[in-house]
Design a protein that fits this description.
Length: 173
C-alpha cells in the first residue's frame, strides 16, 4: 500500500512537472517576444544591460535554490548524527555546512545586486515602453522567477520520493 501511494505521488509530481515545463516554454516564448521588442526600441548598450540582467536572473536564482537545497541536505544529515557517527564524518558535515552557508550568503549578495540592476533595467525600459509593455516585462520577470523556484521544488520532491520508493522496495523480500 505504501509503495502504491509513493508511486501515485510520484506520478502526480511528474504530471505537475510537465505542466510547469509547459508554462516555462510559454514564458520563454514571451521572453523572446519581449527581447525582440526591447532590442527594437533600446540603444545597443541598454539592450545589452537588459540581456545580461535576464541571463543573470536565471543563474542567480538557480544558484540560490541549489545552495539552499544542498544546505538543507547537510543540515538533515547533521540532525542524524549520533554517538555511532565517526568524528571524521561529523567534521566533514560541519565543514560542508560552513562552506555552503558562506556560499549561500554570497549568493544572497548577488541576488541583492541583481535586484538593484533590475531597478536600473526597469528605469531604462520605462523610457521606451508603454505602461502595458512595462507591466508585461515585470510580469515576465516574476513568472520566470516563480517557475524556476517551482521547477526546483518539484525536482527535489521527485528525487525524495524516488529515493523513498527505492529504499522501500529494497527493504521488502
Amino acid at each position: 500500500e505504501l509503495i502504491s501511494n509513493l508511486r501515485s505521488r510520484l506520478q502526480t509530481l511528474w504530471e505537475e512537472r510537465e505542466l510547469v515545463l509547459s508554462e516555462a516554454r510559454e514564458c520563454s516564448a514571451r521572453g523572446e517576444e519581449l527581447e525582440a521588442l526591447v532590442q527594437g526600441v533600446c540603444k545597443p548598450n541598454e539592450f545589452e544591460r537588459y540581456m545580461m540582467f535576464i541571463g543573470d536572473l536565471e543563474k542567480v536564482v538557480s544558484l540560490l535554490l541549489c545552495l539552499s537545497s544542498r544546505l538543507a541536505r547537510v543540515q538533515n544529515a547533521m540532525r542524524r548524527i549520533d554517538g555511532n557517527t565517526d568524528a571524521e564524518e561529523k567534521q566533514s558535515l560541519v565543514e560542508r555546512h560552513k562552506l555552503l552557508s558562506r556560499q549561500r550568503e554570497d549568493a544572497k549578495d548577488l541576488k541583492e545586486n541583481l535586484d538593484r540592476r533590475e531597478g536600473v533595467v526597469s528605469a531604462i525600459l520605462a523610457k521606451y515602453l508603454t505602461d502595458q509593455q512595462l507591466q508585461d516585462y515585470r510580469g515576465f520577470v516574476q513568472v520566470k522567477t516563480s517557475l524556476l523556484i517551482e521547477q526546483k521544488d518539484l525536482e527535489e520532491q521527485i528525487k525524495f520520493f524516488q529515493e523513498q520508493l527505492e529504499n522501500l522496495e529494497k527493504s521488502l523480500p
